[in-house]
């Protein structure tokens, strides 16, 4: 039977290859759109490597694949796969080169209280009244940290700090922290590409050693950004000022936490990040104002190309806007796409929208490839790609519908339909990436965007642009006051929608393979034009099915041995720590936090957790795990449980336990997640194993220990 089936499949294979070849040749004009996809595959392959790959690997594969492509250029069956491999190798090589390019000293152990001197490179106002400063050219000899960048939280007001000034401050610093749980956000990797060698807290006011002298264009832009933020804050204190600063300078640190949560829970967080929506509104506003103003002067309108002048003005303004925002990824992506459109207007050429998407993605993947693994890149390009593909398919039908209805009613109907379609397409495209990174789904995001985006376009962005234009004249308050009214209206919409029942729905973390499968299906659906594009829907569904395979861990412990989490009978996670950040991360990655406090004595209502002063015992399905809190609980912990997790060094004191995770293991390997399997086994994952042996991580150490090693004090 198997032989017969094999023969039939073998007979079918040539027909399948012929069909695929025919379809590929029919869509040759879409081939360039796959360039960033293969580049991104190379970047993903680099970050998925368990350890830092050898320097020669990427260039070797790239050279071999390029040679095969050139040799087989007249044989598509060989040239196309070789070209794809060459692009993957190029993405891999570019990412490895970027990793080496940004290498900087990194603090290896907590510094304790030390004096740090450095040049202020950036000052960000915090919503609680403090500041977050980034110091460049740092001198901290007691820590062994050479010239590097350090980010400090400053709570003491002290003297006014300006970008470019040289300061000294007493601070406690730590290395960029590892993930709080395997699979959680890896700030250490982000810090590596930002050049940050440490983060910390200032223990007192800073002493200004030298006045502000911004050096280089980046520091001058940061100084300008600080001035703009101060002007905005002087007119708009409170939450409205934080949002206005985010819309004008790209700094979101001044927005209160509750406002951020409201925007996220309603799918409006994109309004707070300078991206395509803002760039499009600014470019359109400048274009039509300049063109309309010049058209009012007949001598100019009849003799000169005012449309091209308007496009040039819009290009200059959005370029300046991107620079003022600090060149964030969403704004840069939107600027590249808008710039190509405006350049096409200047050269009287048509625009190719999906090719703009591919061009922007290619430019970013070759220059800042680390952005691929972050939510900003994924959500931004998913939204724009889906929008372009949607309007390629449905745009002509919508336009025909508007013409059929006719008149003002037709225009209004067409506007509302386009707004709803835009919100649905962009929201649907980004929802899965939001599930993966944030584990929450905004149920009413389409409704919220239908209400808030028009207000943003009419009552927010025009006044934000006007405020920036009027600041050199000292008249910015004329625009900032109505800007505050517009922001208040958007805030009210967000708060109203967030108050609806079940506005946000928590979901388990989507596995990485599920996200990759979904992304591959989405790209197949959006980048092709033929009927075979619908094959991508099956891959997208298979990726989403990964949610059903997720089983959260039964026990978790952080890398400092200061917090434990256990799974209760109702599926919630009981957490011993009251840290807001840790409870938020664990709640997203390991299940909803229980609305109970960890018992110091006694047991939980379901009987799974019982605690004494030095020991807690966790029971599930007849299996027992011991959580040792201090020395007094060690003897009882080693009396029978198969799993011992200790906040102290155990050093072989529990030979009868199947698995021991003690203070040394937590120090070496970071946060741990443990599953009690149904077959009686144990599955253990740790942060160090998830991160791998990469430049931004501590070198993973074996679980064995030597007597001369000791973890930092509790």
Instruction: List segments where confidence is low: pLDDT < 50 over at least 5 consecutive residues.
Output: 5-12, 699-714
Q: Helix count?
A: 23
The N- and C-terminal alpha carbons lie at a distance of 66 Å
How many extended strands?
A: 19
Offer a concise description of the structure.
Helix content is 52%, strand content 14%. The protein is α+β, with helices and mostly antiparallel strands.
Question: Your description of this structure?
Answer:
It is a single chain. This protein has 714 residues and is of the alpha+beta class. It is 52% helix and 14% strand. The strands form 4 sheets. A 6-stranded mixed β-sheet has the order 12-13-14-15-16-17. Mean pLDDT is 85; it is low at 5-12 and 699-714.
Key terms:
5-stranded mixed beta barrel, alpha+beta, 23 helices, 714 residues, 6-stranded mixed sheet
Present the secondary structure layout.
Blueprint: H1 2-26, H2 35-48, H3 57-71, H4 76-101, E1 112-125, E2 131-139, E3 149-154, E4 166-174, H5 187-194, E5 196-202, E6 207-210, H6 216-235, H7 239-249, H8 257-265, H9 276-295, H10 298-303, H11 306-324, H12 329-346, H13 353-367, H14 375-405, H15 407-438, E7 440-442, H16 445-470, H17 477-498, E8 504-506, H18 512-527, H19 535-544, E9 555-557, E10 564-567, E11 573-575, H20 580-590, E12 602-603, E13 609-611, E14 615-620, E15 623-628, H21 634-637, E16 643-646, E17 659-661, H22 663-669, E18 672-676, E19 682-686, H23 687-691
Parallel strand pairs: 3-5, 15-16, 16-17
Antiparallel strand pairs: 1-2, 1-4, 2-3, 4-5, 4-6, 7-8, 9-10, 9-18, 10-11, 12-13, 13-14, 14-15, 18-19
Helix pairs in contact: 2-4, 2-13, 3-4, 6-7, 7-17, 8-17, 9-11, 9-12, 9-16, 11-12, 12-13, 13-14, 14-15, 14-18, 15-16, 15-18, 16-17, 18-19
